[in-house]
Write a sequence for this structure.
């Protein structure tokens, strides 16, 4: 009987404490800047082109092979009358978010700091009706940083 | 008595428990043959969660394999990563920076706390105390997981340890945050203690049930808290110190009877020891590097083989690694504590009532991810 009363004492003291839950869809927890949702590509505002040169480093480092990269010659290169120093640039890029296991290895492998893990809530709340829609193409991957809606945190 | 037995003729029947049963902690199937309420035989079927993690790691380089270690032991990810990373380091003969070692120790012990909180909560549900301990322990576990998220960026699959150190340094407010979380964890342990340890109903459910003596436990190859509950004073942190456990003062908790209650109580006291360890580790934390000099992105180990074992929350988590000089393991074998502890289940369960089977299974604290790999 004593033990049971003691247990009930604990429940009663917990009843008096502050609640720890929050009404989730209305109030979001503040995410840490190290947060890792899905990888996105970064946008070089000064040359209006992606940082990514399509060097395949992330594709080769990916443990689950969720990326496909195709590169092309940069039409914006200085030799072609442009402003950029990048000889090659990304042409097509797909990341299959359904396969990605968010291990951060692509960010570590990248030599141009062109890829980063999305640390905002929009990265965590990716949801679609069809699994095919989780295969993101280049404009979708660039959209978030292009609109400036990310505090990037690159490890190196 | 004999007359009653003659009158009531009982028949053995087979009962399938699992794989889709809420109290089998994952996808585990027990085929129980029962005589009335008594269990006369048990056949355990495992392998429903087999993903071939060992074979997968043989196709990946050493850094890529770290992510898969998380997925084998998904309640104590840091401990699983630690074994794997230490095996690679031993093959490479690497010198690990001191700061990285201390941070590893803190994280591993914090992970032990969160794993044991999970155990206490789930075990309470197994005993029929629905809700209260589960929610209370999850409240505390959530605080620990929030801390892990701040450090590593992910709530469960950290992939934070690297061969040679850590992926990146911990945030600046690491020490104060750890102390803050430890304070709430201490309160959480006190809550759990008050809720369960002296509760008469809980004691009736757990005392003298699922007993296994020390000799049997050793013969079955049990390890960790489940072994220590039988009174065997064996902890790899003391027996074969790795990291800096030899510089730390802590006790190895042992039980007496080897019953379900002891397995619960050993874990509860172990959580207090973990807090003690973390507090001592925080004093040794000095600024410095967190990644060793020679740790390149694509490691190429010299040929050889190595076996590393560490004390994970469930017991000995060992990694046997064979290298033939490539940048990936030639063979990787995971010795998981849950798999070996589960073998003793038949010894514990046979002869007890069917309602106790769930409690006994819960007390071994299996994680099917590491049993099936």
């Amino acid at each position: 009987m004593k033990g049971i009363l003691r247990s009930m004492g604990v429940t009663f003291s917990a009843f008096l404490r502050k609640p720890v839950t929050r009404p989730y869809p209305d109030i979001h927890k503040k995410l840490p800047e190290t947060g890792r949702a899905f990888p996105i590509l970064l946008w070089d505002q000064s040359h209006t082109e992606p940082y990514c040169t399509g060097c395949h480093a992330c594709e080769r480092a990916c443990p689950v092979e969720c990326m496909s990269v195709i590169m092309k010659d940069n039409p914006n290169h200085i030799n072609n009358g442009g402003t950029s120093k990048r000889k090659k640039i990304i042409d097509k890029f797909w990341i299959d978010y359904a396969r990605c296991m968010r291990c951060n290895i692509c960010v570590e492998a990248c030599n141009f700091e062109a890829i980063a893990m999305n640390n905002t809530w929009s990265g965590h709340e990716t949801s679609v009706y069809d699994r095919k829609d989780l295969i993101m193409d280049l404009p979708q991957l660039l959209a978030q940083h292009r609109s400036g809606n990310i505090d990037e945190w690159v490890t190196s | 008595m004999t007359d009653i037995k003659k009158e009531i003729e009982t028949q053995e029947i087979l009962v399938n428990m699992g794989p889709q049963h809420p109290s089998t902690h994952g996808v585990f199937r027990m085929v129980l043959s029962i005589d009335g309420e008594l269990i006369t035989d048990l056949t355990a079927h495992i392998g429903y969660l087999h993903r071939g993690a060992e074979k997968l790691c043989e196709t990946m380089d050493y850094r890529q394999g770290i992510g898969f270690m998380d997925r084998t032991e998904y309640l104590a990810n840091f401990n699983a990563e630690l074994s794997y990373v230490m095996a690679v380091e031993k093959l490479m003969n690497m010198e690990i920076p001191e700061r990285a070692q201390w941070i590893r120790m803190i994280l591993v012990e914090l992970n032990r706390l969160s794993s044991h909180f999970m155990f206490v909560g789930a075990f309470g549900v197994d005993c029929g105390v629905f809700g209260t301990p589960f929610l209370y322990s999850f409240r505390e576990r959530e605080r620990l997981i929030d801390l892990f998220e701040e450090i590593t960026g992910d709530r469960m699959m950290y992939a934070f340890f690297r061969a040679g150190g850590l992926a990146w340094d911990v945030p600046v407010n690491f020490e104060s945050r750890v102390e803050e979380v430890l304070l709430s964890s201490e309160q959480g342990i006190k809550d759990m203690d008050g809720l369960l340890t002296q509760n008469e109903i809980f004691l009736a459910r757990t005392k003298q049930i699922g007993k296994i003596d020390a000799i049997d436990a050793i013969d079955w190859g049990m390890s960790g808290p489940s072994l220590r509950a039988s009174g065997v004073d064996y902890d790899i942190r003391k027996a074969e110190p790795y990291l800096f456990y030899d510089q730390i003062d802590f006790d190895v908790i042992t039980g007496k009877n080897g019953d379900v209650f002891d397995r619960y109580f050993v874990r509860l006291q172990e959580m207090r020891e973990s807090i003690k360890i973390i507090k001592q580790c925080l004093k040794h934390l000095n600024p410095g590097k967190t990644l060793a000099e020679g740790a390149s992105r694509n490691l190429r180990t010299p040929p050889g083989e190595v076996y590393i074992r560490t004390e994970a929350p469930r017991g000995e988590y060992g990694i046997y690694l064979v290298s033939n000089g490539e940048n990936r393991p030639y063979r990787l074998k995971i010795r998981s504590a849950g798999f070996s502890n589960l073998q003793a289940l038949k010894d514990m369960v046979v002869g007890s009532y069917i309602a106790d089977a769930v409690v006994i299974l819960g007390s071994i604290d299996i994680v099917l991810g590491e049993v099936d790999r």
In short: The CA atoms of residues 306 and 321 of chain B lie 5 Å apart. The interface with chain A takes residues 60, 63-68, 132, 136, 139, 142, 149-154, 157, 159, 167-168, 171, 191, 194-203, 297 of chain B (CB under 8 Å). The longest helix of chain B spans residues 98-126.
